[in-house]
Amino acid sequence: MAFTGDLQGMEMVLTFVGLLFLFLFFGRYGVINTGKDVDGVDVEKPTLHFVPSSIERLQSITRFSRDELKTLYRNFKTECPHGIVSEEKFKSIYRGLFPTGEAEMYAHYAFHAFAHRDEEIINFEELAVGLSLLQKGTLEEKLRWTFRLYDINHDGYITREEMAKIVESVHLMVVEPPLADESHLAHSEKIFNKFDRNGDGYVTFDEFYESCVNNQTIVQSMMVFHKEECDVDGSDETTIWHH
Ligand SMILES: *[C@@H]1O[C@H](CO)[C@@H](O)[C@H](O)[C@H]1NC(C)=O
To answer: What's the domain range around 75?
Structure first.
């Protein structure tokens, strides 16, 4: 996954794709393989530091089916035997997903977008809710979620500084060789100015939403792994890079 040359404003797309890779990661045994081998999983097994919600509750707060949740949970438990994910774990996952880049900074922001209570750990429920929205949510839900990533301090709007940090983190993760500092800034200024529709220095969710839904490239990227009946096999992974 090495990027050379100009990103041509693809940061928005790459931000979202970066989030979705997490989904592929946790679902890597065929994401949601509804076939055999799900019965053996005991979701309620209380040997963890964090005991997950009942599967009925998870079904009611996500869009995953029972079998999908079991598969997701099995993968989750393999990676996170204690039932929680730390920021360190996110970083190591992203390092694995983007081995040629520096993914730590992006992983840090992605982690805090998932950690809804601004805690140091994410539990399975938070992860499942986030992944469910990213994969199966409406366009608006996906955009709200992505907005939350950009709105680093979660105060309801994106500032120039926040935009610059996210753009830099995406560049560090996917661009090779790394761009110069001025180049991150130039890109993020361009995006910010486009998104800040009334030019007041703050991008609200409404402005963010308007800019994104009117851009087919962004909309399509949000739908890349979208599946109602989830049967992603990972093969999309290669094609999305050919924009
Ligand atoms: C749409 O978004 C892409 C990716 O961020 C960007 O390269 C392109 O310039 C945008 N198009 C318009 C018309 O804003």
So the answer is: 7-37+49-224
